[in-house]
Specification:
This protein is an alpha+beta fold and about 700 residues long. The chain has 16 helices and 39 strands. Helix 2 crosses helix 7.
């Protein structure tokens, strides 16, 4: 089999590497699903996939060769940035523009925070060199490329240890001649160098955003290539020759070749799979507007689905703390101007460590115990309390084992850690200390949801929440109450839902062409030719990944702004004809979008900044949530009772603990704890719970609790 081709059928696998667990879903052609949670192996992330997939192959009774496609969400790119372990990266830019990364947008995320420090550029200044060349804003060559200087500067960088190079010349988005000439020269003289060229990574206006995105790509490129190649080799040794697809930040899949060349498009890889799956669940349940809440072991993420579509952005900042593509808060991270699902992320997960700061205040995260050593209750040597330990103390979690009995735990270790590090320093009893840790985590996660709802002009009280991840259903109702949300959905396979969602995604590749002229001056024939050329690029890439024309489509869009503005909105384009009728409709759509986004609009003339194409390939065997059947062992568990503390200052309540399979269409009143292999669902008092026709758990909150 050609390993780059999209397989025509057979067994498909979705796998998502998280900070604590690696989640894998194996789907058989008849709709049966098998799930596995394996502790993430930080030193070799692919090993957890090999281990978990090996167990699933045995459980499902299939042969390695039966697997025809693996869709993978990886944290390799994001971890490389967070841990600052990327390649020694150099930058070649136009002379005089060496300090673009430091200058940035001349902004800070919080105006009066005197303790804030700007993130260190991923390419240190001594490895950023100005090259004599110049192309003006109209694409005319003003100063020819100095090839001798280019080679001399590159030789110095190589001698100093640079192994990955970003080429970012001014105005290359309108005329890439100098960048392409530099690339050809460097490939000839320095074949060992890995090159990221801005006209290939991001051919768009704005030199800072383009430079930042290209530098991030160069910084993570070697790590991503090495990881994917190693994973490919490990799978081959298992006898798996399946197509390997990588989830992109925009919620689509990209082939191995694309992910290896442009990993910047997959920095937010894992969370995107969950949003893709949530779109399908929402469509089946008639929920066109949903808040997506994903809580894992290290972070919690939030996004929204509006009118049945995920909220998308063409730019976001990657940073510690809260990472959000908010248009109001910028300057605190590394800018990635790439298509992505609009996801806000906070460092509050099950493994987030609780600690007391110098002022005596309780804090939770962003530091995490991760998979190793993990929370204190894992017994792997971590003495510090985590959110998971707080949940263990309060009675929400199984006191014997997690992950279907595969992970033994010790509640005594959780109690000792909470008492020592939180209770005694703050003068609180054990339960009050645990509630404090959990409440802080909940408030932090509610903040992430506000970033994608209230900050976008959306009222969370008018939307339902779909909660997944290992900790999502555990905290969902408490977070929902903070926001006034009345309905929570824990989808099927909630604990491994990102992996399942990947199997419902389409392949997607994005292409853009800078136009930069008044909309009224855009010749219809020329614009139509540009749109068709972009679409042809997309069809070519999809064909190389095995998607025939009948399974491929191209969705057009235009980046528009009022003439003289510096930022634009992306408006869907209904036709590539680009005649007067289409232009008039495009103008009306922009005005409506601008009004919805900013609260006003104008009759000022418009400027067309870019034309975009999203080329999509639809899998013939994508996961259909309406006709799938989860392996029964993942839904079963023991029926018992245990004391659970639902509110600080109130006595614990003897609560029924039931397996997920026992929840039917008839509503049951809380309190209730529902256990399954992959997650725990908490139904507090004053809530009712039922299962829908698909198997999703629906929790309705009583209005009196708001």
């Amino acid at each position: 089999m050609n390993l780059t081709q999209h397989a025509p059928g057979g067994v498909r696998v979705g796998c998502d590497i998280g900070g604590t667990f690696t989640d894998i879903v194996l789907a058989l052609p008849d709709g049966r699903l098998f799930v596995n949670k394996t502790s993430t192996t930080p030193d070799n992330l692919g090993q957890a996939i090999v281990d978990g997939l090996g167990a699933l192959i045995q459980q499902a009774g299939v042969a390695p060769g039966d697997i025809t496609e693996i869709v993978h969400g990886t944290t390799t790119a994001s971890n490389t940035i967070l841990q600052k372990v990327g390649a020694p990266t150099g930058v070649l830019t136009t002379e005089g523009f060496r300090d673009v990364l430091e200058i940035g947008r001349i902004r800070t995320p919080t105006m009066f925070d005197l303790g804030w420090s700007k993130p260190e550029p991923l390419a240190t200044r001594r490895w950023r060199r100005g090259i004599r060349e110049r192309i003006d804003a109209q694409g005319r060559i003003v100063t020819a490329l100095d090839a001798a200087q280019l080679l001399a500067e590159t030789q110095q960088l190589v001698d100093e240890g640079v192994s990955s190079l970003a080429i970012c010349f001014l105005n290359s988005y309108i005329n890439p001649a100098h960048e392409l000439a530099a690339k050809a020269l460097l490939q000839q003289h320095f074949p060992q160098l890995l090159l990221s060229v801005s006209c290939e990574v991001l051919p768009e206006i704005k030199e800072y955003e383009r430079t930042s995105t290209t530098v991030v790509n160069a910084y993570i490129l070697p790590a991503m290539r090495t990881y994917l190649a190693r994973l490919r080799d490990d799978l081959t040794r298992m006898g798996i020759t399946a197509s390997l697809q990588v989830m992109a930040s925009n919620g689509g899949m990209m082939g191995l070749a694309s992910a290896s060349d442009k990993p910047v498009f997959a920095v937010a890889s894992g969370p995107a799979g969950g949003v893709a799956g949530a779109v399908e669940i929402g469509a089946l349940g008639g929920d066109a507007d949903l808040i997506v809440f994903d809580m894992g072991g290290t972070t919690a993420k939030a996004s929204i689905i509006a009118n049945g579509q995920p909220s998308l952005t063409n730019e976001y900042e990657f940073r510690n703390g809260i990472s959000a593509p908010s248009r109001f808060v910028k300057g605190g991270g590394y800018v990635l101007k790439v298509p992505a699902i609009d996801i806000a992320e906070v460092g509050a997960g099950g493994g987030s460590i609780a600690w007391i700061d110098a002022g005596g205040l309780l804090c939770v995260g962003p530091e995490s115990a991760g998979a190793h050593p993990g929370p204190a209750c894992y017994g792997n040597g971590n003495p510090h309390p985590t959110v998971t330990d707080a949940n263990m103390v309060l009675g929400y979690l199984n006191p014997k084992a997690l992950a279907g009995g595969s992970l033994k735990v010790s509640p005594e270790l959780s109690m000792a850690a909470i008492e020592r590090d939180v209770g005694r320093p703050l003068g609180l009893d054990l339960l009050a200390a645990a509630h404090g840790v959990r409440q802080l985590a909940n408030v932090s996660m509610a903040r992430a949801i506000r970033a994608v709802t209230v900050e976008r002009g959306r009222d969370p009280r008018e939307m339902s929440m779909i909660a997944f991840g290992g900790g999502g259903p555990l905290h969902a109702v408490a977070v929902a109450r903070l926001l006034g949300i009345r309905r929570v959905i824990a989808p099927i396979m909630a604990g491994v839902f990102c992996s399942a969602g990947m199997l419902s995604a389409d392949a997607e590749h994005n292409f853009v062409k800078a136009v930069l002229r008044p909309l009224a001056d855009c010749a219809p024939a020329e614009m139509g030719a540009i749109a068709n050329a972009l679409a042809d690029k997309g069809y070519t890439v999809l064909a190389s990944e095995g998607y025939p024309p009948e399974d491929a489509s191209a969705v057009l869009a235009a980046d528009l702004r009022y003439l003289g503005q510096s930022s634009e909105l992306t408006v869907p384009l209904k036709s590539a004809r680009f005649d007067a009728e289409v232009v008039a409709q495009l103008t009306r759509d922009f005005q409506a979008m601008y009004q919805q986004t900013f609260g006003y609009s104008s009759d000022e003339p418009l400027e067309l900044v870019n034309l975009r194409v999203a080329a999509r390939g639809r899998s013939k065997h994508r996961l259909d949530f309406a006709h799938c059947q989860v392996d029964a062992t993942a839904l079963q568990g023991e029926t018992t009772t245990r004391l659970v503390s639902f509110a600080a200052g109130e006595a614990p309540v003897m609560t029924h603990v039931v397996p997920r399979a026992s929840i039917g269409a008839d509503a049951q009143q809380g309190p209730l704890v529902i256990e399954s292999y992959d997650t725990t669902i908490v139904v507090p008092p004053h809530c009712s719970v039922r299962s829908d026709a698909i198997g999703n758990i629906i929790i309705d909150l009583e209005e009196s609790t708001q």
